Every structure is written in C-alpha cells, then in structure tokens.
Predict the 3D structure of the following.
Amino acid sequence: METHLLEFPVDRMAKVLEFSRSGFYKRKNRKPGIRDKEDEMYLGLIRSIHQEFRRPGVLKTWEEMRLRMYRIGKDRVHKIMKNNGIHGKIRRKSRVQTTDSSHKFPVSPDLLKRNFKPEKRNEIWVSDITYIRTASRFLYLCIVMDLYSRKIVGWSMKDSLETGICISALRMAVRGRSPDKGLIFHSDRGVQYASREFRKELRTYGMLQSMSRKGNCWDNAVAESFFSILKNEMEFNVFLNSGEARKYIFDFIEAFYNRKRTHSFLGYRSPDQFEKITVA
C-alpha cells in the first residue's frame, strides 16, 4: 500500500485489499524487525513466482516455495500476498457449448470407470474440447492427455468443431508416443468422438474407445481440469487474432504446462519431470 500512497487514498486501498486503515498505519510506523525483513525477502520471491507461474493463488505459491526449500507456513504466504495486493487469477466460467451429444451415432461404454491413476503411461488417454476467444471469432482447442503423467501428448486448434480437430490431436499423440494396441481412449459423448471417422481412426491404432456416462461430467474430470487451469492462468480474456492465440497455446502447453507446471498429484513435479523419474 505504501508504494501507492500518492495515487490512491488509504481508505480506498484498505477497502479493496481488505486491510484495516489502523492496521496500515500501525505497521507503517513500527520499526522493522527480523520477521519484517524475512517478509521482504519472501515478497520478492512470491512476486517472482507470481510472474513465472502466471499468477498462481496462495496454495500454488506456497507449494512452489516449499519445493525451493523455504520453510514457510501457508498462512504466512497468504498474509504477505494479501498485504501487498497479490492475488491469483480469478476463474472464469465457460459459456460456449462445445459438446453436442444429441446425435444418432452409437455410444461406447465407460471403460475408464473413474480410474484416474493408471499404472503406466500410454495405458489411458483422455480428451476434451474447449473454445478460445479471439477478437473476430472463436477457435477450438482439442487436447489428448496421458492420465499417467497428466501430460498433454496431442492437441489441435481449428476454427471449426468438426471431427477433424479430434483426429488431428489424436494423430499428433500417436506420432509422439507410439502406443501399443489396447490403449483406452476416453472422452465425453460428443458427436466428434462418436462419428464414424473418429471411430475408424481409433481402430486403426488398435485403441479401445470409452465414453463418459450420460449426464456425468465427473467421468472426464481430469481432461476438463486442464482447461480450468488454462483459462485460469491465461494472460488474456480475448486474443487479438488466431495467430496470437495459437502461439500462446503452444507456449502454454509445450513450454510451460508439460515442462514446468507442478502438480500435487505428481508429487509436485511437472509431467515431463514425473515421466523422467518413473518411466524406465
């Protein structure tokens, strides 16, 4: 707050930051002690993490500090962030429908059965589609994730929701992973996944198709959670054009999510780090 005293009234900043006016002046007039000096050091680290990891919240920031061997409590991290106006990005609700399950194509059984912890890679892949907003139109992003490491092994962006977007993402995953036959490919009941073209593609690679049960979004929760991470950590609500959007998605998936972003499920490792230490 002190750095903005010339720009905004104390009362206004205190209200926005949920910090008492009297507490601000008490802290301002008190001589800094050892704990204050530690907090200044932690503040610099928190700001660095906030920039590097695209505005994470308290929990993610605290986890990253612990990984860097800093012995600090979660409540203290929360207090430092709150006192300095550092907030995680607010999650936005999606409003564009990308799943059309009102079709006449056959529906595959649920082979996944919420088994979100396969024993090896290339055993279960999950897939989903979301939208990316640009100034002139929507783009659509289809991803294929290996459940073992939560790694995005295939993805495709197009300006249409036709089946080709899923086939392109699947082919990318196959080129990069060369899975054995018998892999379970799980998705929702969308027309893109139920189409004859996509089923034929799966048979070509000897994959077993699995679909979520009707009206049960939790059956494909892990794939959907990736989009929640993406939308929450995206720097822009709307991209200027498709080129800017494609570059951002490439950087997010290939340079950040797969290589750097840690997951508690993976023992606070990134998907690439997890696979390096667990795959022979």
Notes: The longest helix spans residues 34-52. Strands lie at 124-133, 138-146, 151-158, 184-187, 208-211. The radius of gyration is 22 Å. The mean pLDDT is 84.
